[in-house]
Amino acid sequence: MNKFLAFVLLLTTAALAKTLHAPLPDAVTKAKTIYIDNQSGSQGVVDGAYTEFSKWGRFTVVSDKSAADLIATFTYNSSLYEGTTRSSLTMTVTPNNSTDSLFQDTERWTIFSNGSKSCVKSFADRVNSH
Asked: What is the rounded end-to-end Cα distance, in angstroms, of the chain?
């Protein structure tokens, strides 16, 4: 009986360890360049995103939007939750010639972190696991 329980536990653990994701569109996997579109109102967002994209090295960050394969748009969001203002940053990745969202992530915006690094890391993890 103990061997059976160990086997079931092993199967359950293995199944939970592998998270399935929807496939990424070809526009992401074939892209070589990305443009950072800062709609957040904070220069720190662009600086953080640029740092993470540079560390990752998968895409070349370009300063000319028309030369980019992908656009990473950062927007600031604020909402009231139980009497407290909660701030977040959303990164939406679109192909240059479309407004179709290829990837989106939202992270909390705090005085310690503006969220852009976390958004790029989340995108990198998803692309690297593809």
From this structure: 39
Residue 60 lies in a domain: yes
Whether the model clears a pTM of 0.85, i.e. scores above it, the answer is no
* CA triple 121-123-128, angle to 5 deg: 90
- Three-state SS for 45? helix
CB 59 within 8 A of CB 33: yes
Q: How far apart are CA 32 and CA 59, in angstroms?
A: 5
pLDDT at position 19: 65
DSSP 82: T
State how many domains the chain has. 1
**Surface-to-core class of residue 78, CB atoms within 10 Å of its CB (0-12 exposed, 13-18 middle, 19+ buried):** exposed
Residue 111 within a domain: yes
